[in-house]
Design goal:
Largest sheet: 4 strands, mixed
CATH class: Alpha Beta
Radius of gyration: 15 Å
Number of domains: 1
InterPro entries: Glyas_Bleomycin-R_OHBP_Dase (IPR029068), Glyas_Fos-R_dOase_dom (IPR004360), VOC_core (IPR037523)
Protein name: VOC family protein
Structural class: alpha/beta
Strand order of the largest sheet: 1-4-3-2
Number of strands: 8
Pfam family, one: Glyoxalase
Helix content: 25-40%
Length: about 130
């Protein structure tokens, strides 16, 4: 069994697509109309056949509530791995990404957390 798609709730698919491609460097893989929304997935540019990230509308009240509550508690919605967190942090800051936690060593890993402007906190991690 493999993980092929992981979803993240977003408030606005177009805004999320712009942020995740322009700021984070992901590549659009699927963009299929589904009613008033889209099946909109992204992949890492260096692994275009890898796990897809679905930018899923937070339209359902339970999704909205979940998203708001974990954001308010400072809980990241998902985590992305990076090879050099200090370099990634500096690059993202230059692109205007707002961090809630700067790179912080926690045991054998270093983490940082930023706001994706679409209702989520995202954690990056260097192992």
């Amino acid at each position: 069994m493999n993980i092929i798609v992981n979803s993240i709730f977003v408030q606005d698919q177009a805004k999320a697509l712009a942020f995740y491609t322009e700021k984070l460097g992901f590549v659009k893989k699927e963009d299929v109309p589904v009613g008033k929304y889209r099946w909109l997935t992204l992949v890492a540019p260096n692994d275009q056949e890898g796990t897809e990230l679905l930018l899923e509308p937070d339209e359902h009240p339970a999704a909205k509530d979940y998203q708001k509550r974990i954001f308010a508690e400072g809980i990241p919605a998902t985590m992305f791995g990076v090879a050099d967190i200090e370099k990634e942090y500096a690059s993202l800051l230059e692109k205007g990404v707002k961090f809630t936690i700067a790179p912080t060593k926690t045991g054998d890993v270093t983490i940082a957390v930023f706001d994706d402007t679409c209702g989520n906190l995202i954690q990056i991690i260097q192992r």
